[in-house]
Amino acid sequence: MKRLAVLFTCLAAAAAMYAALLTAADAPHPVSCSIEVNDGDTITAPVEGERTVIRYLLIDTPELHHPARPEEELAREAREANIRLASSGRVRIEYDLERIDRYGRLLAYVWVSRPGGDLLINEELVRRGLALPLAIPPNRKYADRIFSAMSEARNENEGLWSRAERRIFTAAQVWNEAAVLAGCFITVRMTVEKREERGRRLLLREGKLSLAAYRAPETEDLWSLKEGDRVLAAGKLILTRTGCELPIVSSLQVSGDSG
User: Fold this and answer.
1) Which of 77, 208, 217, 249 lies deepest, with the highest CB count within 10 Å?
2) Whole-model pTM?
3) Residues of the domain holding 229
C-alpha cells in the first residue's frame, strides 16, 4: 500500500508539473508521446488536453494527401523522416506571432530533445532536402536558420536538389511533359520572355511556364531580372489553370545561364 501511495503521489506531482508547463505563457509547449505524423510537415498531437493538428512553420514538404493533387515526389520520404525525428526524443512546440492558419491548424516550430541538444525538426527537414522554406509574414522567427539549412542542402546536393540537378528541361519541354512532371523536382533552362509584377508577386514567363516569387529578403535579387535574361531555375513544378509554375522562395533557386 505504501508503494502504491508513493506511486500515486509521484504521478500527481508529474501531472501537476506537466500542466504547469502547458499553461506557461512564454515557454515552448511540451506535447505527449501520442503523436500521429500525418505527412512531412504536419502532425496531430495533444495540446492542452485536445488532439490538435500542428502545421510546421516556415517549411513546405511535398504533398502526400492534397485534395486536388496526386502524391508528389519525396512525399513519403519526408513523412518517414518526420516520423523518425519526432520519435527520437521528447517533443515540444514553440509559437510565432500568428498561431492559427486559415485551415484552423496550429502553427508551430517543433523541437525534439536529444542527447546532443535540441533539434528543430522544421530546419532539419530542409537541411535534408526534403522540404523547401515557406516564410509567410509575420511568422519569421527562425527564417535565417531555415534558409541557411536550404543553402546547406543545395551545396551538399541533398534530397530534392539531387533530383532537380539530374533533370534539366527547356520551358517548351516542361510544358509538353507537364502532366508527368507535375509534383516533381526539376531544373528549367529558360529565357524570360515576359516579366510581370502583381503587387508583391513577380512572374517571369517563357511560353506556358512561369517562375513565381513573392517579394521577401530571400527573393529580392530576382527583381533585377529583366526580359531577355537567360536563367536556370530549380524547384517543384505545379500545374495552374493557364499553364505551369515553378514557385521560387529564394534566389538560391535561380542562377544565370551562360550555356
Assistant:
1) 249
2) 0.86
3) 167-256
